[in-house]
Amino acid sequence: MKNKNILLTGISRGLGFAIAQKLLAENYSVFGVSRKSSDKLEDLQQKYSGRLFILHTDLAGPEEARHAVFDEFLSLDTPLYGFVNNAATAYDDIVTNLQIGPLEEMYRVNVFTPMLLTKYAIRNMLLHNIQGSIVHISSVSAHTGYKGLAMYASTKGALEAFSKNTAREWGAKGIRSNCVVPGFMETDMSSELTEEQRRKIYKRTSLKKATEIASVVETVAFLLSEKSSSITGQIIAVDSGTI
Ligand SMILES: NC(=O)c1ccc[n+]([C@@H]2O[C@H](COP(=O)([O-])OP(=O)(O)OC[C@H]3O[C@@H](n4cnc5c(N)ncnc54)[C@H](OP(=O)(O)O)[C@@H]3O)[C@@H](O)[C@H]2O)c1
C-alpha cells in the first residue's frame, strides 16, 4: 500500500516540526507548509527525501495560499488522507488596545485560510473516496481565559466550532474532524513570556508544569490513525490538567 499523504501547516518549528518527525517515522508522506525553512527542517528533508515535501507560502492570504497549496503543491492527483491545521500566529494584547489590522491578519492565518484549506482537503478526500482525518490545533486559552489572549483565544474558539460542525456535516462520508487543545508548551510562540507569567500558568495546571510537546504529538498521531476511527467532533485537551 502507498504511504498516506498528510498536509501539515506550520512545519518549520515548534509543535509542527515535532508532528512532522512523528508522522514521517510512522511512514506517512508529509506535505508541509511554512513561510521559512530551518536547518532542522532541511536535515529532515534529507533524511526523508521522497516522503517530505515543503511549500514556503504565507497563510495570511487565504486565496493565494489555497492556490499555492491545492493547485501547485498538492494537486488533485495526490490523494489526501489527513490535514493537520497547526500554523497560527498570536496577537496578544488587552482588549482595550485592540487594533483591527493585526486582528484581521491573525484571523486570516488562524481561521480563514484553515477553513479554505479544509474545504479543498475534504473535496480531495471525496474525489478519492478516502475516509480522512482533519485535526485542528486549538489552545487552552479558548477554555480558561488569560489576560491578553482574548483576541487569540477567539480564533481558536472559532476553529473548535468549525471542526465540530465539519464533523457533523461530513461524518456520513467517513471524514472525521477533531481539535487538540494544548496547554502552554515551550516553543517560540511562548518564548517571550516572563518567568512570573510562566509561574502563574503552571500554577493553574494540575501537574504544575508545561505541556509536553510529545504528548500533544502523540494525540495528533492517534487522531490521524485508524485507532481513533470512532472519534469525531471532539475537543481533546492535552494541557497538564489546566483548571
Ligand atoms: N506554544 C504554546 O504554548 C501553544 C499553546 C496552545 C496552543 N498552541 C498552538 O499550537 C500550534 C503550534 O504552535 P507553536 O507553539 O509550535 O508555534 P510556533 O513555534 O510559533 O510555530 C508556528 C508555526 O506556524 C508557522 N506560521 C506562522 N504564521 C504563518 C503564516 N502566516 N504563514 C505560514 N506559516 C505560518 C510558522 O512558520 P514560519 O514562521 O516559517 O512561517 C511555524 O512553523 C499553534 O496553532 C498554536 O496556536 C501553542
How would you characterize this protein structure?
The chain has one domain: NAD(P)-binding Rossmann-like Domain (Rossmann fold), CATH 3.40.50.720. 44% of the residues lie in helices and 15% in strands. It has 8 helices and 7 strands. Strands 3-2-1-4-5-6-7 form a 7-stranded parallel sheet, with helices on both faces. The protein is globular and about 50 Å long. The termini are far apart. The mean pLDDT is 97. NADP nicotinamide-adenine-dinucleotide phosphate binds next to α1.
Overview features:
single chain, 243 residues, alpha/beta, Rossmann fold, 7-stranded parallel sheet, 8 helices, 7 strands, globular, binds NADP nicotinamide-adenine-dinucleotide phosphate
Give a topology summary.
Elements (H helix, E strand, L loop, with lengths): L4 E5 L4 H12 L3 E6 L4 H9 L4 E5 L5 H12 L8 E4 L14 H28 L5 E5 L3 H4 L5 H21 L5 E7 L12 H9 L9 H12 L10 E4 L5
Parallel strand pairs: 1-2, 1-4, 2-3, 4-5, 5-6, 6-7
NADP nicotinamide-adenine-dinucleotide phosphate (NAP) binds next to helix 1.
